[in-house]
Amino acid sequence: MILNIHQINFFLLLCTFFSGIAFAQQTSGITENIISNENGFPIVSVDGKATAIFYDASEDVAVIRAVKDLQSDIQKVTGKLPNLSTLETSGDFEIIIGTLGDNKIIDQLVASKKIDTKDLKGKWESFVITTLENRKSKKQLIIAGSDRRGTIYGIYELSKQLGVSPWHYWSDVPVQKRSSAYVIPGYFASGEPKVKYRGIFINDEEPAFGTWTRTKFGGINSKMYSHMFELLLRLRANYFWPAMWGKAFNEDDPMNPKVADEYVIVMGTSHHEPMMRAQKEWGNHRTEYGNGEWNYHTNKEGLLKFWEDGFSRNKSYDNLVTMGMRGDGDEPMSDLGSAEANFKLLEQIMRDQRKIIEKVTKKPAKETPQLWALYSEVLEYYDLGMKVPEDMTILLCDDNWGNVRRLPDLNGKKHPGGYGMYYHVDLHGAPRAYQ
To answer: For the whole prediction, is pTM greater than 0.85?
Structure first.
């Protein structure tokens, strides 16, 4: 579903088991076919020569990993393995990959107007793929990104067009073989994504997905998640809620958040797991926080400490923080007697959570991306006028049966934090299952 570009900055899909996942397609990106078998810039020429790839050693580790994926993908497609180099090559052709501000050649090309500044400077996750011929008659293929993810998306765009599907691992999609590959001369700009945050939630993951990951990887751990994060990037997604049925992303495998960061994936937690903490973590540490009750009336200080510890642990990573509170076990909060009393309490909870964010980051809360999920009964609070900070994304939700309950009023007052959609591909839960 695409909403007005000025009103939405978040998109989330929920899946039950991984084979059932679906993704929203961005309207930005390169729609043209840029690959030819014999004419243009040679990635692998008809006489079997592979063009070397140059990147800057100072690039982010996520970009360098994607560069190595491209090298491998070219070999899978053509049988030829290009050389990688952090030094400029001496041949007649070279592939240059880099991020604006992190690659001196890319910066020079922008300064000399070989790359249009409007396509990269100040842009979110944008990339340019272009062919150039410099004054020494060396021909170059440039993949330039406005930021780390922009560069990575440009790399994987070339891989996809060469014949490596984003689903090469998860769905065993065969590589499209070719003996040679050329990029058609031209200048191709992706534009910015129409939706700022795009991702999935691995939920209701037992027994199918959980059993498979334990058999294949020994658990739902960083070994598995590395494949998941690669898929997200190849599909130009950037956001993820991890599996949570009796699982704690940050504690079950301490490498999980580190690997997510190395793949530049923005992490969050589900609609009822605020402040970067898993529900399982409360069970693991209940006795360490106050009286152990998940109740803001009776255990406020314990909950605030629990949230502060979790948010502090993840403060160095790229997060989109779920705010608010529901009852323990994904139930409604304890009823104060009226919906208004309930949402007044929830407003106070959010104010206290934002104080934690400011305390930990030492920055205004608005500088940390946050969202409020209107899941189940929480929509009633929104309809009754519950107020949230203008910088907070309002995440709308279907009714657990695939029916969208509410959309933003496109003619109403703008909400600067934007809106999102949390949509169930399917849902399992007593006494029903929706698929």
So the answer is: yes
